Every structure is written in structure tokens, then in C-alpha cells.
Amino acid sequence: MDLEEARLGLSKHQQTFGVDYSTADFTPTLCGLWGLRPPTQSLGRAITAVQELGHSCFGAAGQLEKALVFCPDAIGDVLWEDYPGDFAPLTANSEVRIKCSTVMPSVTPVCFASIFSGAPPEIHGIQAYSKPVLTVETLFDVAAEAGKQVAIVSSNNCSIDKIFRDRKVDYFSLRNAEMSFEFTKLLLRNSDYDLIISYDGSYDSSLHKTGGRSGESLQAMRTSIARFVELAGLSDAIWGGFNRLLTFTPDHGGHDNPETGRGGHGTDVYDDMVVNHFYRLRQAQPKH
Ligand SMILES: [Zn+2]
Prior knowledge:
Blueprint lengths: L2 H15 L3 E2 L3 H9 L13 H11 L7 E7 L4 H6 L1 H9 L3 E6 L6 H10 L3 H4 L14 H7 L4 E6 L3 H5 L6 E5 L2 H14 L4 E6 L1 H9 L4 H24 L5 E5 L6 E2 L6 E2 L5 H4 E9 L6
Parallel strand pairs: 1-3, 2-6, 2-7, 4-5, 4-6
Antiparallel strand pairs: 3-10, 7-10, 8-9
Helix pairs in contact: 5-12, 10-12, 11-12
Bound molecules: zinc ion (ZN).
Zinc ion (ZN) binds next to helix 11.
């Protein structure tokens, strides 16, 4: 497969849904902010708007020092479009919103594999709902290679917990989303990681059980947004002396099946395929 053909695994969805970015642009963008090389198989592209914000925020010679990547499963663009009031605290706490298409099939292991490798499924190798350990390079490999301390906080046996194993990363696997969130805050306060991934599967679980717009699901969506806002305040308090980044990085969206009343995803439709990635950058406060 030549490079152009391989990149089609990302760009064809951008064309279908009329968006300028792919979720696979996330890792090259972070690598750019950090001054790291992108993973070997990455075909995503560093996002100019985020790079420019990094330059103006950190200074021409400055670089990112600490990053917290919050991953709310299945929160798609359709929710952002339909519930702007609920998303207002997220918009107010981030500078850049990148509307992007994910990859096919739009299921969690396939999508997060692309987000953290920059590679389309045809290259990273997970092309169905399965959770093998990913063999291509990821953000975590290049960060660890550069001496960064990396932690992945997630729920037991979820995709993120399983597919990025066997790396120089500390894995913290909790029994549910609430425990994962509480543990993320504990890590922020009591450790010195440079990159923390924090997975939140609460909206996705509710979507599958009760539909994407049930009272329970909308409450789970609001809880994820509130968690992001809480992490923004906490990262300012704990990481105030560092150039820092907080992101809101969902894997895919979701849609309801009118016959069952339940939600799902995995298909090549807008509701499953288009998500928003939010970036919040802050400059280190001068040390006294
Ligand atoms: Zn799901």
C-alpha cells in the first residue's frame, strides 16, 4: 500500500462529511507541541491552529511540558450541535474546537488506535471490534522514548486499558468511570507524570443501554463535561508552573436504533463519524 492510498483511510471520511481534520491528527499535533517526532506510521497532520496557539502561548522557544488527555467515549458532534447550553462550560474552558472525522468501523478500539498512533486502521491493524495489543508506534512510545512519564487511567478491560499495553507506561485500571476520574485527580495531586490519559466511558455505557438522548445519557454527557471543567481547574492549580495542555478527545459519536430505542455506533454515518476535539493550552506562571 503506498502512502497516498494509506492516507485515504483518513481523508476519505473528511471528504464524506466535509470536515478539515481527522481524529488521527491528534497525535502529530501533540508531538508538535512537545517537540517530539510523530510515531513512525503516523499519517495524521499537525493541526496548524493548535500549533499557532502553542507558539503564542508558550513562546517561540517554549514547548509543552504537561498534558492531560480526557477521553469521553462516544460524545459526538450531534450532541454539541443539539445541546449548546450543556457544552457552554467546555467551550468556555478551551480555546480551540477541532471538528474532525473518525475512522471505520467507528468502534472504540479502532478509533483510539488511530487517535494515539496517527495511523488509519489499514495501517495500525485493528479493523474490527477487537482489543489486541497495538503493534504500531504510538504517542506513548515516542513520549516514553523522550523520557516522559506516561500514565493511562481507564476502566478494567476497556479498549484503552488493553490495546496500548507492553509500553513504558504505568497502567491504572479502575472498576468504573467514576473511580477512573477520582483516580486521575489523585494522580494529578500526588505524582509527577508528564502525560496522563483519562478515559471516561460513562456516556457510551448509557447510550448502549438507554439510547443516546435518554435522561441518563444526557446526564452522563453533562457529567463528562463537568469532569473536564474540574480537571481544568485542578491542572491549573497543580501544574501552574508548567506549560500545559488539557484536551477533550472523544473517539466516535453514536446514533439510536429506532427499532430497539437503544444507541450504538460503528457505521459510516455522520452521527457516528463526526466528533469535536477541544484543546486548552496554558502558559507556565513565572516562578518566583
Ligand atoms: Zn460504544
